[in-house]
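Customer escalation, tier 2.

The customer says the design service returned an amino acid string that "doesn't look like it belongs to this structure." They asked us to rerun it and document both sides in this ticket. The original structure tokens are below, unchanged.
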């Protein structure tokens, strides 16, 4: 139990931990936002969007999410997706439907060049990073050569 009028967390806690977390972000990614109005092709069932607005490009951390199935947390259905993407806190806040292009080296070499779609942006108590859930937009083993 802390003494009265004493802080439980050091005032420079974030300054101490942020460089350590950002040093683990070793994957080059590009975050972009698709156009709002899409056109759906009724024969193929694919919705295409006219252009994307680039939002940010830089280092991030990407890993497979073991708990990718939907769960209920605080009366909210949360489906984080098959991958967890950690962005630095100074990156713009992503929104659901944003696109993440994996540009650089990642622990799974088959992900280089993959396009991920943001499926969930959970609330995060960590002020030094943003964690988002992503799913692969097109299965890697089904891409045409």
């Amino acid at each position: 139990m802390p003494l009265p009028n004493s802080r439980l967390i050091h005032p420079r806690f974030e300054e101490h931990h942020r460089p350590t977390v950002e040093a683990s972000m070793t994957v080059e990614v590009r975050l972009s936002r698709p156009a709002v109005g899409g056109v759906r092709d009724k024969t193929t069932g694919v919705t295409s969007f006219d252009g994307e607005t680039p939002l940010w490009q830089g280092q991030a951390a990407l890993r497979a999410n073991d708990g990718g199935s939907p769960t209920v947390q605080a009366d909210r259905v949360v489906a984080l997706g098959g991958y967890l993407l950690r962005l630095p806190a100074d990156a713009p806040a992503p929104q659901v439907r944003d696109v993440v292009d994996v540009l650089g080296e990642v622990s799974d070499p088959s992900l280089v060049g993959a396009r991920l779609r943001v499926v969930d942006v959970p609330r995060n108590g960590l002020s030094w990073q943003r964690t988002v859930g992503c799913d692969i937009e097109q299965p890697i083993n089904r891409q045409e050569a």
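Tier 2 assessment: The sequence is consistent with the input. The chain has one domain: 14-140. The two ends are 62 Å apart (CA to CA). Sent an explanation to the customer and offered a walkthrough call.
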